[in-house]
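Thread: sanity check for a docking pose with flavin-adenine dinucleotide

Original post by kr_44:
Hi all, I'm comparing my docking run against an independent structure prediction. Below are the sequence and the ligand SMILES. Could someone generate the full complex and paste the structure tokens? I mainly care about where the ligand ends up relative to the chain.
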Amino acid sequence: MSKKVVVLGGGFAGLSSAIYLALQGHEVRLLEQLGHLGGKASEVREAGYRFDTGPSVFTLPEVFEDLFLQAGKSCPVEYEAVDPLCRYFYPDGFVWDVSKDDETTTAQLDAQDARAYLQLKQEAKKLYEGAAQTFLFKQAPSLSELMRYGLTSGLGAHPTKTLPQLLDSFGASERLKTFFLRFATYFGADPYKAPAVLHNIAWVELGLGVYYPKGGVYALVKALEALAESLGVIVQTRQKVEKLVRVGNRVTQVETSSGSVQADVVVSGLDLVRTHQLLGQQEWGRRLEPSLSGLVLLLGLNSPQKDLAHHNISFSADYVAEFEAIEKGKLSPEATIYLSSSSKANPADAPQGSENCFVMVNAPAISKSSKRFSREAYMRYGEDILQVLKNRGFDLVEAIDMKHFVPPSHLQLLATDGSIYGTAPHSLLSTIRPKQHVKGISNLVLAGGTVHPGGGIPLSLLSGKHAASLVQKML
Ligand SMILES: Cc1cc2nc3c(=O)[nH]c(=O)nc-3n(C[C@H](O)[C@H](O)[C@H](O)COP(=O)(O)OP(=O)(O)OC[C@H]3O[C@@H](n4cnc5c(N)ncnc54)[C@H](O)[C@@H]3O)c2cc1C
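Reply from moderator J.T.:
Ran it for you. Here is the predicted complex with flavin-adenine dinucleotide included:
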């Protein structure tokens, strides 16, 4: 029977759940606070440059395609494999192009590192394949499913080890260790506190590949928006949800900045803490450790950076010290810096002869910061990062045409505490993301990067899909 479903938030998770719910025949209304959809995946166009402001690494494209497949349509977004997957710059001058092809990747390493790389890649595959069906592609596992996983794959997932201990046990050199540690940050973890099972993330990029959607990541958002509307979803932007009105164990009304909407079922694609706050539970989550935040710089450069690939990482000289600083709530002066130039794949993203450059460094979540950093302090830190890049041989400053800062305080609009991935996955249990419901409320389902199965484009889309299945079960 068709129900009135109100979806909160127009990020990947909100859009995905709205589409799957419309396909089930429900009357779906999506409410988004901003003037555009996409949430963390946004776009800036300025002075002839185009930037994706959030995600730039697109993986598991079949998850995106599934939405169109289920709607009986062909996927309107073309994408191509990115090769190398990423170029790594080490402080000792070593530059490593990592690609899906093992031969090309290992040919740049000495024999010992080459062997350890292949073994660790294989280990990541084993961990991913052992966990994916239980933890990603289905609804949050029940106790019996967890026990089944424990018996079949769990023991092989090194439950007593941390990620650094796992890498040490494979004899990884410092160079290789830093490389493999970094993937845990894709889940918002401090790699030194991450459990070994998070090593599975490396397989997604190294084994399954990274893709670039033609037109940029924002093209994915636009395609989903068009699909949702074609299926009858009513999309309302500039609708800030201010309260979820609860009667007994049900949410009956969604109050927004401009009125009130009645709902049979509510799917919240907002982050977990915010959803609880809208229910009046202001203190919820206060004691939970937040995941990493980040500081982003968008640079328009009037000359192409020939040394850079599409995706690049410039490692700090001391990865341990970098995360110790973040743990203490500091903005690390010696940061690992991610640089991505989508104009290398899509020249239309920059004026002729120019290049766009997305720069990102990890930062502590706002509540973990040792002091309240002002916007100016974050901007000064952004300038410091440009200086660090210069010291490492990337002199971007002279080429800057335009510059934008996106500090953690701005991310706060989308993510409580500026924390991109919700709670920090620093124990085996906390890698299992929170379930998609709120205790005591029968018609509210959660979706998004802070709940099951987790953050990132494909997982947020899957979260929306699982939310729609939960609604179907509920009715
Ligand atoms: C800088 C950055 C880089 C990233 N890089 C990558 C990457 O390379 N690859 C990758 O896969 N992932 C990456 N991610 C993570 C990825 O972007 C997120 O996990 C994913 O987009 C989350 O989608 P979501 O729908 O759960 O949440 P969001 O995108 O946050 O969507 C939530 C929506 O709810 C809206 N909202 C919030 N409060 C209200 C309210 N009260 N009323 C109405 N609407 C409201 C927000 O405006 C927003 O549109 C990155 C994230 C950031 C920030």
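The chain is about 35% helix and 20% strand. Hope that helps with the comparison, let us know if your pose agrees.
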